[in-house]
Design a protein that fits this description.
four-stranded parallel beta sheet, 13 helices, disordered C terminus, 24% strand, alpha/beta, homodimer
Chain lengths: 437, 437
């Protein structure tokens, strides 16, 4: 009996995968959703975890908790290692899982434009682990600067480079500026009164290049008000433990953070499919793999053009819409109904925040900046957070931070250690790297 | 000018160190407090982080934030590697820090009664890292059991052994029973309806042996109501990756948790001082090191008898009182006043919680159990939490959990991985150990 039910497998419990699962809960398909992590992550607020504004629990929910009330959905914490298209089976190590319909929503990771060796010097921000590692690095840089007697070393430790002027880079640079300014003014003794140097580097001519030029100009001014230095028009030429090179200029920096590019998951490799330069799989108008109408690709691992021919951006609302669309196609097939028309992306607008009371909102004809955009940004992000308790906690934390300028999540879980070598100083780059690793 | 001020160095920012620092803020001494971690940890609630009830941020506060308003207190994130008693200097790797008065409040870690090789199989609970590692292990055991088709392996994964029947062991066993019962009933498919097996093992004849026998008997009944099996009167004879041996009985268990003993920090070694078997340094009636009236030892690294000759227990209130006392002695010296009398410990009572609406409170003549004790326990722990926001968040979380039976912090930060070896199954002990490590 049960085995005659259609088997749908979803790979990835991000925005796309969860949205598909929720829509398929209304069908009688037997759905299995697989993820390498036990939680769904609200990535748009990840930069706030990295800059100690929010705690991990507040932006991540256990997948089992989210999908608890949907009895036809099974959840497996496991890693997909391949797909056997001919046998219609997903490979998980030695184990395989059969499917009738497959939705691949495996997301993306950072891309270093072929310079993968930069990854260790310039970590990116995609997972909670990334965010916690970044938080640790930023906080330990301040602590090391407080201990260090050497002026050059202190300056290096207090220099933060953010590579990439998209929303993530802008949000990170703004948040680091706010975090360090407050910390240096109130919480330290020797480095009190010093200023951290925050640089935002982008190869393009303006930040937030996907927004309209007036909003980019506003973001630039808002960043400069926060003390962020913008270096535009030149990409990063080199990256190592001690800093970066931009054109001919060498910048000594204790922290370099990568927000410059994403690379799709290995979905293309699993499927032996054609991908664009960022590794995203080209799909048909109904989001299926060419030649395989039973395989859907959605979210950041797919290169999608909507019915109008416009490329669909790699943002959460697009992934959600694609997930719901794929579920609709599958539901129509199960019901023997006519397939829906091609995927259409409804662009609800773009948002980015720079800092306290400073944000931009591009809502088609309506453009907002400053306080109205910031309130809109806060409301929209809280609205889309999953779980009532998370919403309540985030609102409380934001109100608290707004009133007190305080960041409560300034924890470094690990203890520092002097190791065996008495000659290693905490503030030396090698020791710092060791501590931060 | 400034150099003529007395230099006080405090090692450790636990309950004892912070209490001393706060009291010394009223003097004109130049105080430096050193800790290996950037946060003060509210250890009494650590077991709730380990069992996904609370998030790390809720029970830990950055030391700099706590002491921000005390201008004569410097904070250093660093590791003490020794003390030069003759030169009156604390060693931190190659660096040294001079002191006129030294307060050592370096705390304790787990002790395995000489079987340090058990540490990897039976992790303990002293730091946030420990708690997060334990949370990961417990949650991954459930996930692995859900994937595993083999009945024996599933039973092993769903067996949790807690070693040690003191407050920490009782609290952990109760919380794991509540966590797993709820998760298995609501969040899983294949293992739904199964029951986790939780064993609490202690060599003594009753749990909570420092409480009066009637409260121990209540705790035993409350644990049994939660489904915890008690094995009393026999210590653990052996411990490995697959479980434990108690007397002749072998228990296969996916998780063994150590709550059986503490060992003082290396303070005794730093000072070349005489210690008891648990490594705690013997001190004079004024908490100073024999022969060194300028060196105080407080909290879990000191073996203290109060003025009445009774041993002072290793609990937070005792550490706080000792910290305040040491500061008072130092303040009297700075003021040229007469030294206060010997240290007296004011015992405010003992508390332990077993689970929802179940706790014991030994308040001298008054003994509470059940709901009244539980409310008292909640109120006391919230009261002593540092930081208004933490208190508010913990109260909200507890009220939420009470109403919904929900545990919001069920996160495993790391992704699982299949590694290179396709023959490794997630649920195998080796793979599980690898994932959990």
């Amino acid at each position: 009996m049960a085995s005659s039910r259609q088997k749908v497998v979803i790979v990835g419990a991000g925005f796309g995968g969860l949205s598909a699962a929720a829509a398929l809960a209304k069908t009688d398909a037997e759905v299995t959703i697989i993820d390498r992590r036990n939680h769904h992550l609200f990535q748009p607020l990840l930069y706030q975890v990295a800059t100690a504004g929010l705690a991990p629990t507040q932006i991540a929910s256990p997948i089992r908790m989210i999908l608890r009330r949907l009895p036809n959905i099974h959840i497996e914490l496991d890693e997909v290692t391949g797909v056997d298209l001919a046998a219609r089976r997903v490979r998980l190590g030695e184990r395989t899982l059969p499917y009738d319909q497959l939705i691949v929503a495996a997301g993306a990771t950072h891309a270093y434009f072929g310079r993968d060796d930069w990854a260790e010097h310039a970590p990116g921000l995609k997972s909670l682990e990334d965010a916690l590692a970044l938080r640790r690095r930023v906080l330990l840089a301040l602590e090391s600067a407080e201990l260090d007697m050497d002026r050059d070393a202190r300056e290096r430790l207090l220099t933060f480079v953010v590579v990439g002027g998209g929303p993530t880079g802008v949000e990170l640079a703004g948040a680091i500026a706010e975090l360090t300014r407050r910390a240096l003014a109130c919480d330290f003794r020797r480095i009190r009164g010093q200023r951290a140097r925050i640089l935002l580097i982008d190869g393009g001519s303006r930040v937030l290049s996907t927004f309209c030029p007036s909003l980019s100009a506003y973001a630039k001014r808002a960043l400069e008000t926060l003390g962020v230095e913008l270096m535009l028009g030149q990409p990063v030429a080199h990256c190592d433990t001690h800093g970066v090179k931009v054109g001919e200029a060498r910048i000594e920096a204790g922290n370099v953070i990568w927000a410059a590019g994403v690379q799709a998951s290995p979905a293309g490799r699993w499927l032996g499919a054609e991908t664009d330069r960022a590794g995203r799989v080209f799909v048909e108008k109904d989001l299926t793999l060419p030649g395989h109408p039973e395989v859907f690709l959605i979210g950041d691992c797919a290169s999608i053009r909507d019915a109008t021919g416009a490329p669909v951006p790699g943002v959460a609302p697009a992934a959600k819409q694609a997930g719901a669309y794929a579920a609709k196609v599958i539901a129509a097939r199960l019901a023997g109904a006519r397939a829906p028309g091609p995927f259409r992306y409804a662009n609800a607008g773009s948002l980015a925040t720079i800092g306290r009371q400073a944000a931009v909102a591009d809502l088609g004809r309506v453009k907002l900046t400053g306080f109205p955009a910031w309130i809109f940004w806060c409301a929209a992000h809280v609205w889309f957070l999953i779980g009532f308790r998370n919403r309540l906690q985030v609102v409380l934390d934001w109100v608290w931070s707004y009133l007190t300028f305080e960041r409560g999540a300034r924890l470094v879980f690990e203890a520092v250690t002097r190791g065996r070598d008495p000659a290693i100083r905490v503030a030396s780059p090698a020791a710092e790297a060791r501590i931060a690793s």
